[in-house]
Design goal:
Elements: H1 5-18, H2 21-24, E1 46-48, E2 53-57, H3 60-63, E3 72-77, E4 89-91, E5 99-101, H4 113-130, E6 131-141, H5 146-156, E7 159-168, E8 184-191, H6 202-208, E9 217-220, H7 235-245, E10 251-254, H8 261-268, E11 272-277, H9 280-290
Parallel strand pairs: 2-11, 3-6, 3-10, 7-9, 10-11
Antiparallel strand pairs: 1-2, 4-5, 6-8, 7-8
Length: 318
């Protein structure tokens, strides 16, 4: 017998009351996925109860299977793009780093289409299971990978709400001059399924945009980071995502944490965050970042009194 939407909501609230998912996520394991740990629980690489951050060092494809059903309020994911091919190491003079390695991360090496479909199907199936009803997932990717993600989302029954174009205004040039300068990424925004009301803070985003409905093109200036990571997401992008798709106190999950921008922004905006990162060195980077070694969180989004033509290049005002 199917539960009515009201009873589903009551059940979800009861579950939240009985289980503080954030505090006990390292102890709650799905029955169909027995633990392979001697202690019977997962041990976080880093836990900050004050900032409500938990970071796990491991493979997201395995870890996601251990999270209980319907307990996550929002997911942001920047999965491997599988687009690195040339292996060139190019000298740079733009003030960022001395060299640019086009094979910058092993996890992003090119893979067959079959591998990509299987990879994205595996983690997205679990993401769908653990999202609460009405909650959403935000996934970034380049032309190498986002088409595969789109197809898998539809195949699993997600409802795609928007494709959002992330326009990096100060993106580096195409060093070889072999094609157009790449200045955009695509972010797909999708709901768990076609049921119920979408969790979307429309009026918050409209207010941030000077009282005008926000468009699906977000332009931003990429800031230079005081740390090294090949694919850091800019905080301004995560601010918009988190403000649009979650509320204060909500639990956000990032299964491919990278340099930890999701957690860094989430704690600054009063959200709880669980992150998974496969590389131990990056886990240490995330820990240092959360603890303020590279600077404290400073909010970049703010209410605009009006929207002018010159504002159209600022993230959140396009």
């Amino acid at each position: 017998m199917k539960l009515s939407p009201i009873k589903k909501e009551e059940k979800s609230k009861k579950m939240d009351k009985v289980y503080d998912i954030f505090s006990h996520i390292d102890k709650l394991l799905c029955a169909e996925q027995p633990a392979n740990y001697e202690s019977g629980k997962l041990t976080p690489f880093y836990y900050n109860p004050e900032k409500k951050i938990k970071l796990f060092n491991g493979d997201a494809l395995q870890f996601l299977k251990k999270i209980p059903d319907c307990c996550i309020d929002m997911i942001f994911a920047d999965p491997p793009y599988f687009g690195n091919q040339s292996g060139l190491i190019i000298k740079r003079t733009d003030g960022h780093t001395e060299t640019f390695d086009t094979q910058k991360a092993k996890f992003a090496y090119s893979k067959s289409l079959q591998y990509q479909f299987e990879f994205h199907h595996t983690w997205l199936k679990e993401a769908q299971r653990i999202l609460k009803d009405g909650s959403t997932i935000w996934i970034t990717g380049t032309y190498h990978s986002i088409g595969v993600v789109n197809v898998v989302l539809q195949d699993l029954g997600f409802k795609i709400l928007n494709d959002i174009i992330l326009h990096k205004i100060n993106a580096p040039p195409n060093f070889k001059g072999s094609c157009f300068r790449a200045v955009t990424e695509t972010m797909l925004w999708a709901k768990k399924n076609f049921n119920g009301k979408t969790k979307f803070n429309y009026w918050v985003m409209k207010e941030l945009n000077g009282g005008v409905q926000m468009k699906n093109i977000w332009g931003y200036w990429a800031e230079k980071n005081p740390f090294r990571h090949p694919a850091t997401k800019q905080p301004i992008v995560l601010e918009n995502v988190i403000l649009a798709g979650s509320n204060e106190g909500d639990l956000i999950l990032d299964p491919f944490a990278g340099s930890g921008t999701t957690g860094f922004v989430a704690q600054g905006l009063g959200r709880k965050c669980v992150m998974i990162e496969i590389e131990q060195d990056y886990c240490q980077l995330i820990k240092d970042r959360i603890e303020g070694e590279y600077g404290e969180f400073r909010r970049k989004t703010k209410v605009k009194t009006r929207v002018s033509q010159s504002d159209s290049k600022v993230c959140g005002t396009v």
